[in-house]
């Protein structure tokens, strides 16, 4: 008896809920599109994979951005900036949740990140709805700047569409690659890597090269089985890895097995403290931060605040924080700042000298203007620019 | 027949298999005694690796080690085994001891909690960056690169020899301990029937502590072994290795020590050969498929004893 | 050795010849006396479904009270977790089967929806058609997974399901070039690391759901329906059969229960609920990637289930709510600090009795903090150069009470390790020694919190989840709303 009454009540209330739901399903309204006073300071959100599979990259990006903000805030005349971190764990659905929290947080005026191209696609609708500018220091998929997010999405690293063909062209022109030769392309099963590997693989096979496309998990620590597959006919091994230490390991095992193939890495492997096997090549969009004399004091100060190793994905986030700081200063000239104002000013920021060693400004679609890749060769453990 | 590929995969498989075998031994021992799947075991392996790295840095860092390499290796193993063992004992004492009579899911979840805690505490303290033993660049060391060349141009590095030799030594020592000493006998008794062993006057707590110590020490040693040949140290390395070692323990028959070693070697070889001959992308899936196949044909593992359920 | 001391005492010493339940009659009557006892009695007379209904209605009011997109999004995520925990409850809580590959079915549901409603294969089916198809497909898959494992018990089942789960994850991650035994060319089924983007929004026969609120209500309705169905099954013969399976599968088999069939049904049921959740996930996120269907999600769902109490529907709701909301709230340093100190004070209030001792502990902590602060800041001025995590009054108090070095990293790391050892040592002491030792430990904890933990909230919240799991399992293995069980091995 009691059970039946309970069942009827449940069924009736579920029906009632359905009615209420359809009546109340109105679209999401935007939080805080209003002006914020600059006096108490403004906040920047940072989306990065701080824990999880890409934790080493994300925490490094976070540290570089935090480093810049700490230095900026030392000057009392500057508008105080607070960096709010959001851990995405390289997972687009978690990135969406954190992006939603940023969009709904009235004190956040701009976002640095997210790091992965998939995450960018996931958070773009949410952040655009909130009117926030978001700039990534490591998302390199070509399609992200096809113009559909003009004025909202920016990145200060060149995309795969520039890096892939540059690497391919160099292999042909300078490394003596010819049609009919063999190349092994290995990706680490992350979207940064597979995207670049696909572009290079297609580029090379389009020119008649036999491409052996391999894939190994980023979590694996032993490449000797893959290395064994490299034959004496393989001229080049292309490794678009995210982690320089993995490229180092691969190259070392290659040498240990006595293979003569040349290792060619991408910008993720650009780290002179980790990837040092002689005779290897790397493509990178800027000169080496640790070798630029002008940067020595910056790098030293960074290491003091955050001791330990760093990665090439970190410095672009320092530059992004720098650009945001400049845009915030411009926007705060009248004492107030809105998200729309910051977006407009951010798009116009142009830095002539940065720690990356190249001037940084954005194209109309949000890409890095004048992006080109340098090719480095490792000689005696040091990186030498060869192109 | 491409002998180069075959023998390279074989040596890689055996080396990896030895590392998995050592970790699997720890899993097996703890399961045999407590029927507990200790998910935190992989993280003890990770801590062992970091302890080894600390010893290297103590002696000047990888590129300018200023003591005899053999002495340093010995110290690394000793410190990693001691540190790993102590960590294992502490985990048992504070996380698992109260749960001996609780439903089995409680210690399982606690183990997951410990694993979570260790991984993230390691990231907090040591940073998320991948660090490296850089054993190939130890000055004047015969490790790794300067191996010798077998026929068919296969290079075998000294690091791999050390791993295999060290594993053999440790496994033999363990077998002697379990078969010949009083404590070893007590361990076997407790894993057979805990209550009866207690009634026979065996101090069960003491035996459990010793088991955890030895199992975790082996995991610590495995950490150092892995890193002198494969270099990479990072806070989340325990999960992947733990998963494979767990597979190995189960394939060989969990609770059975020779089975764990056999399982470890099998899984190492399976992984190596599937990367080499079938596909590097699906190597993990193939290993798991092997496990499932073994479980279906022989549910208690290759060398395991079929468990008789008592009413 | 000291085995007896740490094990919590049994409720009432069993008397010979008297049934335990009968013997504790007096104790139960005492509990019913007084106001709280009366309230408890009345609450127990209310049928359970009324509570679930109450929850449903309260949840429905959330988007009415707030317009904040983030809160509604967190609510949606919590509902998804509740659904997952509900399905897992059927498998683990009712049938007692340790399923460690559960999130693979979540993935099947999500990818299934994505494949049927996106430009990937050019299919754009109506959601009202997709959901039953996906749910049935997932159930069948659950059946297939359970089929080889029906003879396995306990840990072996856990192992096999864990590996099925990992197998699925590998397929999702590398599904962009699946070739059958290397003979056919690679087929792109799941999109690999790039996933399946541009998934259609829910289209329930003309009613398009594209807003956060819309998805929140859809998720709530699905959850209430699933809860309703699981409750009915729980009260039915199958539910009772599952419980007998959980308690002692051998005895159940001898009593004539079709054990193998029950296991299959439980697996399929849980898998179906996971598949349903997957469709909701895909609908809101409009893109599906393999990252969400791996072990970390599994651990979180298990944590929610066990925290709430396996086998209890109310526990599912409570566990999911507590864990997910905690994880989100702990992202912000300001909130996290408040919670930390409130929980600390609450624990002291509950655990430290009599009041005299409470006053000593709190007074001592505050005093010690100020003393150390005064001494150290006089000797090393850089030890107070840092920033607190909260502003206003609490911040000012903390600035004066706890040291904030300008470069806290290395000191913080060392003190973190010392803190862990101190807390472990605290559990070894008893009586007045423990209470006195609390004083420096709390000061140390505040120091580590302010300087190291709260500065990296993303890592800290995971550390805290790990710690909560360890502490909770040791203190109350049955979870918050579960009932204590003795397992027959």
What value does the Rg of chain A take, in angstroms? 24 Å
Helicity of chain C, as a percent range: over 70%
Strand count, sense and barrel status of the largest sheet of chain A are: 7 strands, mixed
Low-confidence stretches of chain C: none
Run of helices and strands of chain C = HHHHHHHHEEHHEEEHHHHEHHHHHHHH
Class per helix and strand makeup of chain A: alpha/beta
* CATH topology grouping of the largest domain in chain A: Rossmann fold
CATH superfamily of the largest domain in chain A: Response regulator
Q: Please state the average pLDDT score of chain A.
A: 82
Find the biggest chain interface.
A-C, 59 and 63 residues
The figure for the number of domains of chain C is: 3
Amino- and carboxy-terminal Cα gap of chain C? 24 Å
Mind telling me the CATH class of the largest domain in chain A?
Alpha Beta
CATH architecture of the largest domain in chain A: 3-Layer(aba) Sandwich
What is the count of structural domains of chain A?
2
> Outline of chain A, from the CA principal axes?
elongated
Quick one: biggest sheet of chain C? 2 strands, antiparallel
Characterise the protein shown here.
The complex is a heterotrimer of chains A (387), B (311) and C (489). Chain A is 40% helix and 18% strand. Chain A is built from 11 helices and 16 strands. Chain A has helices at 2-24, 55-73, 92-104, 117-129, 160-173, 191-206, 224-228, 244-256, 296-305, 315-331, 339-348; strands at residues 36-37, 42-48, 81-87, 108-112, 133-136, 153-155, 182-187, 210-215, 234-239, 262-265, 281-284, 336-337, 350-351, 360-361, 374-379, 382-385. In chain A, helix 6 (191-206) links the parallel strand 7 and strand 8 (210-215). In chain A, helix 10 (315-331) crosses helix 11 (339-348). The radius of gyration of chain A is 24 Å and the shape is elongated. With 311 residues, chain B is mainly alpha-helical. In chain B, a hairpin with a 3-residue loop joins strand 2 (148-150) and strand 3. Chain C has 489 residues and is mainly α. Chain C folds into 3 domains: 3-42, no CATH class; 48-329, Orthogonal Bundle (ABC transporter involved in vitamin B12 uptake, BtuC); 335-455, no CATH class. Helices cover 70% and strands 3% of the residues of chain C. In chain C, helix 15 packs across helix 16. Classes of the chains: A alpha/beta (387), B mainly alpha (311), C mainly alpha (489). Chains in contact: A-B, A-C, B-C. The interface between A and C is large, with 59 and 63 residues.
């Amino acid at each position: 008896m009691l059970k039946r009454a309970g069942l009827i009540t449940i069924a009736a209330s579920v029906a009632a809920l359905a009615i209420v739901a359809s009546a109340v399903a109105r679209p999401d309204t935007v939080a805080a599109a209003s002006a914020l006073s600059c006096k108490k300071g403004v906040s920047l959100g940072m989306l990065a994979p701080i824990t999880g599979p890409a934790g080493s990259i994300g925490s490094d990006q976070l540290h570089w951005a935090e480093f810049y903000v700490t230095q900026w805030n030392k000057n009392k005349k500057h508008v105080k900036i607070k960096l709010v971190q959001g851990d995405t764990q390289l997972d687009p659905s978690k990135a969406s949740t954190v992006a939603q929290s940023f969009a709904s947080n009235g004190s956040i005026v701009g976002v640095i990140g997210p790091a992965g191209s998939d995450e960018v696609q996931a958070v773009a609708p949410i952040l655009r709805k909130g009117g926030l500018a978001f700039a990534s220091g490591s998302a390199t998929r070509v399609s992200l700047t096809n113009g559909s997010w003009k004025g909202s999405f920016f990145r200060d690293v060149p995309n795969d569409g520039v890096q892939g063909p540059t690497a391919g062209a160099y292999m042909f022109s300078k490394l003596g690659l010819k049609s009919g030769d063999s190349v092994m392309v290995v990706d680490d099963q992350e979207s940064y890597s597979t995207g670049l590997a696909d572009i290079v693989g297609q580029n090379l096979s389009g020119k008649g090269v036999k491409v052996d496309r391999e894939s190994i998990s980023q979590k694996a620590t032993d490449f000797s089985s893959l290395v064994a597959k490299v034959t004496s006919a393989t001229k080049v091994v292309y490794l678009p890895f995210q982690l320089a230490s993995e490229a180092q390991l691969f190259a070392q095992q290659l040498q240990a097995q006595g293979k003569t193939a040349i290792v060619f890495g991408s910008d993720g492997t650009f780290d002179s403290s980790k990837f040092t096997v002689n005779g290897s090549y790397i493509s990178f969009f800027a000169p080496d931060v640790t070798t630029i004399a002008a940067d020595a004091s910056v790098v030293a100060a960074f290491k003091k605040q955050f001791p330990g190793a760093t990665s090439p994905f970190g410095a672009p986030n320092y530059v992004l924080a720098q650009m945001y700081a400049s845009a915030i200063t411009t926007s705060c000239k009248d004492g107030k700042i809105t998200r729309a104002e910051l977006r407009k000013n951010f798009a116009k920021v142009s830095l002539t000298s940065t720690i990356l060693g190249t001037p940084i400004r954005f194209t109309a679609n949000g890409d890095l203007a004048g992006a080109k890749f340098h090719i480095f060769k490792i000689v005696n453990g040091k990186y030498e620019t060869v192109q | 027949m491409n002998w180069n590929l075959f023998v390279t995969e074989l040596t890689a498989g055996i080396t990896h298999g030895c590392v998995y075998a050592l970790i699997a031994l720890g899993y097996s021992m703890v399961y045999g005694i407590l029927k507990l799947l200790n998910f935190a075991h992989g993280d003890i392996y990770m801590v062992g690796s970091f302890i080894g790295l600390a010893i290297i840095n103590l002696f000047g860092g990888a590129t300018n080690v200023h003591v005899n390499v053999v002495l340093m290796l010995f110290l690394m193993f000793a410190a990693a085994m001691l540190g790993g063992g102590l960590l294992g004992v502490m985990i048992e004492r504070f996380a698992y001891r109260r749960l001996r009579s609780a439903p089995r899911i409680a210690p399982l979840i606690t183990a997951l909690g410990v694993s979570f805690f260790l991984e993230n505490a390691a990231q907090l303290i040591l940073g998320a960056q991948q660090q490296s033993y850089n054993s190939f660049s130890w000055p004047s060391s015969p490790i790794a690169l300067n191996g010798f060349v077998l026929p068919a141009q296969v290079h075998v590095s000294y690091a791999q020899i050390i791993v295999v030799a060290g594993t053999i030594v440790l496994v033999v020592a363990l077998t002697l301990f379990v078969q010949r000493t009083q404590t070893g006998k007590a361990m076997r008794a407790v894993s057979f029937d805990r209550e009866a062993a207690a009634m026979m006057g065996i101090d069960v707590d003491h035996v459990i502590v010793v088991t955890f110590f030895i199992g975790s020490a082996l995991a610590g040693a495995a950490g150092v072994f892995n890193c002198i040949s494969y270099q990479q140290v990072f806070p989340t390395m325990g999960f992947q290795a733990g998963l494979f070692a767990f597979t190995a323990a189960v394939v060989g028959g969990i609770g059975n020590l020779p089975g764990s070693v056999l399982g470890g070697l099998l899984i190492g070889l399976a992984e190596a050969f599937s990367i080499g001959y079938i596909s590097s992308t699906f190597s993990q899936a193939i290993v798991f498929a092997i496990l499932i196949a073994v479980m279906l044909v022989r549910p208690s593992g290759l060398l395991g004893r079929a468990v008789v359920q008592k009413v | 050795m000291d085995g007896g001391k740490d094990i919590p005492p049994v409720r009432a010493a069993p008397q010979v010849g008297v049934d335990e339940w009968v013997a504790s009659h007096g104790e139960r009557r005492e509990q019913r006396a007084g106001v709280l006892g009366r309230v408890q009695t009345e609450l127990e007379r209310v049928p359970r479904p009324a509570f679930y209904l109450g929850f449903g209605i309260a949840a429905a009011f959330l988007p009415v009270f707030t317009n904040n997109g983030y809160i509604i999004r967190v609510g949606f995520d919590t509902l998804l977790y509740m659904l997952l925990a509900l399905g897992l409850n059927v498998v683990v809580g009712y049938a007692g089967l340790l399923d460690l590959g559960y999130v693979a079915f979540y993935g099947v549901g999500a990818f299934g929806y994505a494949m049927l409603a996106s430009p990937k294969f050019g299919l754009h089916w109506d959601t009202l058609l997709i959901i039953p198809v996906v749910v049935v497909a997932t159930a069948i898959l659950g059946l297939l997974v359970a089929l080889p494992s029906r003879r396995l018990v306990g840990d072996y089942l856990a192992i096999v399901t864990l590996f099925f789960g990992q197998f699925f994850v590998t397929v999702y991650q590398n599904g962009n070039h699946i070739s059958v035994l290397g003979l056919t060319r690679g087929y792109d089924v799941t999109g690999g690391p790039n996933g399946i983007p541009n998934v259609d929004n829910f289209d329930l026969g003309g009613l398009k759901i594209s807003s956060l609120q819309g998805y929140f209500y859809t998720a709530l309705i699905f959850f209430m329906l699933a809860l309703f169905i699981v409750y009915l099954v729980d009260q039915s013969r199958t539910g009772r059969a599952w419980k007998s399976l959980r308690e002692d599968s051998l005895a159940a088999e001898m009593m004539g229960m079709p054990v193998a069939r029950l296991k299959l049904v439980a697996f399929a049921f849980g898998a179906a609920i996971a598949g349903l959740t997957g469709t909701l996930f895909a609908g809101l996120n409009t893109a599906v990637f393999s990252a969400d269907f791996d072990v970390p999600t599994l651990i979180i769902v298990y944590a929610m289930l066990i925290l709430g109490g396996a086998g209890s529907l109310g526990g599912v709701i409570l566990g999911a709510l507590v864990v997910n909301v905690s994880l989100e709230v702990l992202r912000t340093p300001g909130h996290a600090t408040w919670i930390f100190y409130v929980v600390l004070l609450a624990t002291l209030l509950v655990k430290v009795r009599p009041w005299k001792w409470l006053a000593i502990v709190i007074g001592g902590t505050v005093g010690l903090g100020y003393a150390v602060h005064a001494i150290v800041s006089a000797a090393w001025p850089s030890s107070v150069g840092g920033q607190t995590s909260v502003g206003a009054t609490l911040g000012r108090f903390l600035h004066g009470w706890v040291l904030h070095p300008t470069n806290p990293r290395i000191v913080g790391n060392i003190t973190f390790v010392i803190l862990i050892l101190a807390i472990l040592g605290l559990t070894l002491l008893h009586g007045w020694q423990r209470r006195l030792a609390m004083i420096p430990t709390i000061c140390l904890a505040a120091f580590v919190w302010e300087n190291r933990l709260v500065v990296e909230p993303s890592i800290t919240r995971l550390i805290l989840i790990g710690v909560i799991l360890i502490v909770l399992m040791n203190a109350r293995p049955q979870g918050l709303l579960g009932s204590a069980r003795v397992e027959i091995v």
